[in-house]
Specification:
Radius of gyration: 26 Å
Largest sheet: 6 strands, mixed
Number of helices: 18
Strand order of the largest sheet: 4-3-10-7-8-9
Structural class: alpha/beta
Helix content: 40-55%
Shape: globular
Number of strands: 10
Number of domains: 2
Order of helices and strands: HHHHEEHHEHHEHHEHEEHHEEHEHHHH
């Protein structure tokens, strides 16, 4: 019996020591976790740092994050919580009915919980109407709004009952859609289009475990957009020609982004997914049209799969009207750092594309920025700017903020004035 006790004792010691051995040697290959995690570097020791308790506070997450087999234990823990309790360990992801993954923001958008108010939307639509008319008349540029699909809209049956408290309210997407049409603003609503095909399409247009339209749904919408632009521009532009459709039992990376950040041991089962195999043809010697996208992440499938490059003259994207692409690949660039008019003048088409109508902020700031730049008269935002400039204390704060963010002070002043204007407009809208 003594040798059994000794063997068990050695086994326990080995189990306890093995994570430390793994940390030092990495003897067993381990797959890393996916998603974003706050950095936890090894803190630099100092006596004062130690006495204050800050050293210990920073050392604890570092030790936890770098323990041997940390990622493997995390997956085991996540899988148990998911399989037994339907608990996801990923920010803002909701486990819907039939294990369909939803984003909490998509649910709120569908239920109208994030509605910004009629007055606020009316104001944005009026500004957008001015820009559409101005761009076309003065610059020959077509302005187009594109609504990408929202998962809450496409899979309302998957939303857990705990979110369905009370009556569904007015939604940003629906109210924007109505007001844009009433004002004659160019709109392609892929949200409604894909929903209209949901019961008849033989192929999945929105993935069970992805945040965005399916690869096939994105391809279908790109083809529709190209045909729309041909009619609008009255010219032929490069086409996508479908070679074949590939059916796969396991979702590819683009259709599985929500599942992957859950960091489970086993992937969530999904219906068969469809993938388009295609090539581009062009019969127009005039070349490709220059197009600027102001968009959220629904743009990326078109970019990564060569649709943008092979259809348009350049790959111009203002991501959330903040990051400027392709400049961002070589030098981080903010839209506030470039000349708005020069960038606009390079385009033949400007497309504002977002899901859920930008959660109320259609254009993600572009509408206000462009309107304030091109509208010749006095506006409330310009009046707020004048108040800032007349106050020495406010200007000192603006200068400090400009230095910290590396942006021009004029851009900081306009951003703050726009924020105050929109915040007050939303506040008033709730009582109208």
């Amino acid at each position: 019996m003594t040798w059994i006790k000794s063997a068990l004792f050695l086994l326990v010691l080995t189990v306890l020591a093995f994570p430390a051995v793994q940390k030092v040697t990495g003897i067993i290959s381990s797959k890393g976790l996916e998603g974003y995690f706050e950095p936890s570097p090894l803190p630099v020791f100092s006596l004062a740092f130690f006495k204050s308790g800050e050293y210990q506070a920073k050392m604890t997450p570092h030790i936890e994050r770098t323990t041997g087999f940390h990622d493997d234990f995390t997956r085991i823990f996540n899988q148990i919580d998911f399989s037994i309790f339907s608990i996801p360990h990923a920010a803002r992801i909701i486990i819907g009915n039939n294990n369909l993954l939803q984003a909490d923001s998509h649910i709120d958008a569908y239920l109208g919980k994030d509605f910004v108010g009629k007055m606020y939307i009316d104001d944005k639509v009026a500004r957008l109407k001015y820009l559409q008319d101005y761009f076309l008349k003065k610059k020959g540029i077509h302005l187009l709004v594109v609504f990408a699909p929202g998962k809450g809209y496409y899979f309302p049956e998957s939303i857990p009952n705990r979110f369905k408290t009370g009556k569904t309210g007015i939604t940003n997407n629906d109210y924007y859609s109505r007001k844009l049409k009433e004002n004659g603003i160019n709109l392609i609503d892929f949200n409604k289009w894909l929903i209209s095909m949901k019961d008849t399409s033989r192929h999945n247009l929105y993935p069970k475990t992805g945040a965005h339209w399916s690869c096939y749904g994105a391809w279908l919408c790109a083809d529709s957009l190209i045909r729309y632009l041909e009619t609008t521009l009255n010219r032929e532009i490069p086409h996508m020609v479908l070679d074949s459709l590939v059916i796969e039992p396991i979702a590819r990376k683009e259709d599985d982004d929500m599942d992957r950040v859950l960091n489970l041991i086993w992937r969530i089962p999904v219906p068969a997914m469809t993938y388009a195999v295609f090539h581009h043809v062009s019969k127009n010697s005039a070349g490709k049209p220059p197009v600027l996208f102001i968009s959220d992440s629904f743009y990326w499938y078109w970019q990564y799969n060569g649709i943008i490059k092979n259809t348009f003259q350049r790959e111009d994207l203002w991501y959330y009207d903040k990051e400027v692409y392709p400049d961002q690949y070589t030098k981080p660039t903010n839209t506030a750092q470039i000349d708005l008019d020069s960038a606009v003048n390079k385009q033949q088409v400007i497309i504002l594309m977002q899901t859920n109508a930008g959660y109320g902020n259609l254009g993600y700031g572009f509408v206000d920025r462009a309107y304030e730049f091109y509208y010749p008269g006095k506006t409330q935002i310009k009046k707020i700017e004048a108040i800032f400039r007349a106050n020495p204390g406010s200007m000192e704060q603006m200068k400090e903020k400009a230095r910290a963010q590396g942006l021009p002070i004029d851009a900081i002043i306009r951003n703050d004035a726009t924020y105050l204007y929109n915040t007050e407009l939303q506040r008033i809208s709730k009582y109208k």
